[in-house]
Every structure is written in structure tokens, then in C-alpha cells.
């Protein structure tokens, strides 16, 4: 029988190869775990590809993994993915919503301003003619085409009860809701959020899939004008507690069109 010193010196090929295989497997599992950690960290996500390429030499071992090792690795991947994917999806939804928020607000603000200038309307009479549109989708659609629709390019439209809804090129959408004194807009970061299963402004705004804008005082504003006197804490409380979530749009505007960590995104 050979001594341990002899094995270390000359070494038995089979023994040395077995040690290398075990080390290779440990390195491979370590690499996989670190890749998932990096995927969950936005600061290091860009280095995942580079790490993967460097990892390939250790994964090209001729020795195969055992079934138990494969199942354990897949189990670890599944657990890590179940923990990280929801957070990644929510982060993506928030970023998408804020980008589309700002774009919609900018487009509509410019359209309303131009519409007022072209028609000679003043802030106090900007709602002229709204009473004639009340709960009449045909008149609302006609009004939109002749007025704001000239400046806001849409890709689709459909009637939703007494309201009219439009789709935008970036995948978002909005519905126009008119009563006798005001015109409201339900904006949906994803057009499918403007569901056809609601009856008016009070039952559709949820602060996640749909948000409220209005034309008041000659301006296109977030939420209602009344919410513009609220402090941030008051807006946050109302957004958390209120069933209608009308204050949520104003809260996001106060936060610089960002969805902060304390926002009730659920």
C-alpha cells in the first residue's frame, strides 16, 4: 500500500481526478448561487454575463453530476427564483408606470394648453360644453376628435358605457369620463388596466392599475384640485385608506413622479 506522501507526490491519477471533480462541482454550485444573488442586485446585474462566461471552464468537466446533485441545485435555483422574481417584477412595473406617467402628463398638459389657446377659453369657462357630454359616449368621442384628439395621438378606441377609452402607442391607455362640471381621465400604465367592468370614476381607480387625472381651473392636473392642498402625509394616508384611491396620483406627482417605498403598491 502506498503512503499518503507518495500519493501527494506522484499521485494516483484516479484519486487526483476525483478531488478535482469534487472541487469543480463545488465551484459550479457556488457560481450559480452568486449569479442569482447578482440578478437580485441591480448594481451587479450587468456583470452576470461576464461571470457566466468565466464559469464555463469549471462546468466543462468530463465527469457528470449525480442525480442528487442536480436535484439539489435545481431546488436551490427554484427557491432563489421564487424569492427574487416577485421583487424584480414589481420593480419593473413601477419603473414602467413612472415613465408612462410623466409622458402622459406632459402630452395632455400641452394638448389642453393648446386647446384653450386655439378656442380662446379662460380657466373659469374651460369646462364649457361639458354638460352636453354628460353620460353620452357618442358625443364624448366626437368632442375628443374635434378637440384634444388633434394633439394626442392614439392607436385604438372603444366605448365603455357612457365613457370612451383610448390606447396609446407605448402600451398605456386612458378613459375619458365627463360629468356636468368636469372632465376626468383614468390613466392606465397598461391599457388592459382600463377594464370595461366599471361604472364611472369612483369604481375604477385603484392606485396600481389605474390613476385619476382631471381638467380643472384651465389645467390638466393629477387627481382632483382639492388634493393639491394636501401635505404628503395626508396624501399617503388617503392613498392607503381610501377605497377610491383618488389621491394616489397626486402623491406620485409630489414625489417627483416616482413610486416611493412607502407607496401602497399592492
List keywords for this structure.
elongated; alpha+beta; six-stranded antiparallel beta sheet; disordered N terminus; 6 strands; 266 residues
Mean pLDDT across all residues, rounded?
77
With helices defined by DSSP (H or I, 4 residues minimum), what is the helix count? 8
Q: Enumerate the strands of the largest sheet in spatial order, edge to edge or round the barrel.
A: 1-2-3-4-5-6
Radius of gyration: 29 Å
Q: Helical amount among residues, as a percent range?
A: 40-55%
Distance between the termini: 69 Å
Q: Rough shape? A: elongated
The largest pleated sheet is described as: 6 strands, antiparallel
Query: What class, by secondary structure content?
Result: alpha+beta
- How many beta-strand segments? 6
Question: Which range does the strand content fall in?
Answer: 5-15%
Element-level helix/strand string: HHHHHHEEEEEEHH
Model description:
The chain has helices spanning 4-9, 13-39, 48-59, 67-119, 130-133, 137-146, 232-241, 248-254, and strands spanning 156-160, 163-167, 173-178, 183-188, 211-216, 219-222. The protein is α+β, with helices and mostly antiparallel strands and 266 residues long. The protein folds into two domains: 4-64; 92-254, no CATH class. A hairpin with a 2-residue loop joins strand 1 (156-160) and strand 2. Helix 7 (232-241) packs antiparallel against helix 8 (248-254). It is elongated and about 85 Å long. The chain starts with a helix and ends in a 12-residue tail after the last helix. The model is unreliable at 1-11 (pLDDT under 50).
